[in-house]
Amino acid sequence: MSMIKVVIDRGIHIKAHGKYVLIDPTGVPGGKPDVVLISHAHEDHYSLRALRTLYKVPLVMSRATQLLVDGRGRLRNVLIVEPGQEVEVAGLRITAHEAGHIIGSLQFSFDLGNILVVYTGDFNLDRRLILRPAEVVRGDLLIIDATYGSPKYVFPPRAELYRAIVGRINEVLESGRTVVVKGRKLGVAQEVTALVSMATSLVPLVERSVAKYNELYELLGEPLGRYVLWDGGGAAAPNSVIISRLGARRTGSSETIVCTGWALRKGFPLSSHADHVQLVRYVLDSKAELVVPFTGFRHEFSSFLKESYGIEAHDESIVELKL
């Protein structure tokens, strides 16, 4: 039997058998980890300041994540890994797996003694117009995203959402108005770009803050179809479709369509995260003995797993486990 300690505090800190693995740090750690793993380039999963202080520690991430996090290449201690690849760092064998969340997003698995740890990061199991879906990785200890861990967050099938979004766009255009489709600028906005371009005869206008990420997707082999850069200057022509970030201001007499997992009742719950159903499916298929949800509705998700399936799940910020 082995002891392992998991601390959720501005990142995921995992300690066992004299090793310290730090994942997705959003603050400077109190001690020096043996290795740092970065799952993806959303800013709630890394701090560039923290990474700069860890200049003597190997930083494991994908090429896409490196380009997004450190485009100027100032971090000299980055170790690039892609899905399906295994690297040995600080005496640990670390395997990267597809996460299907945004470009370059990864899951990680690694052995700490005789404990196989799996960290999902943010992930999505859906087959979408862009990116490969996440794979379910089996392990002993599963540390899993719970952004939409509440049972109320169940999203419609992707194909149904696509049809509904395109249908609403066409309705608005037929009325002679402009449509503004809003999504997270890195993630959902690229999926919406591909949807409008590939499922309609329209060429969408893409806001600059979104277009810079579109360009990276295409550079790394994710085609998004036809689109035109829109700098926001002046009014868009009638019957146009504009794709913008979630926080963008309303444009003239346009109608706004919001695409986010939080839009269960108003808008379209198109998300790059797993919903509650996907989260449960992942846990069951992973065959993990212990589950530690992080972020979002982790308390609700832990309770659901215990009550519905008798799974040992922990929602504390500090967890000491025996395996």
Automatic annotation (TrEMBL):
<protein>
    <submittedName>
        <fullName>MBL fold metallo-hydrolase</fullName>
    </submittedName>
</protein>
<dbReference type="InterPro" id="IPR050698">
    <property type="entry name" value="MBL"/>
</dbReference>
<feature type="domain" description="Metallo-beta-lactamase">
    <location>
        <begin position="8"/>
        <end position="184"/>
    </location>
</feature>
<dbReference type="Pfam" id="PF13483">
    <property type="entry name" value="Lactamase_B_3"/>
</dbReference>
<dbReference type="InterPro" id="IPR036866">
    <property type="entry name" value="RibonucZ/Hydroxyglut_hydro"/>
</dbReference>
<dbReference type="InterPro" id="IPR001279">
    <property type="entry name" value="Metallo-B-lactamas"/>
</dbReference>
<dbReference type="GO" id="GO:0016787">
    <property type="term" value="F:hydrolase activity"/>
</dbReference>
<keyword id="KW-0378">Hydrolase</keyword>
<dbReference type="GO" id="GO:0004521">
    <property type="term" value="F:RNA endonuclease activity"/>
</dbReference>
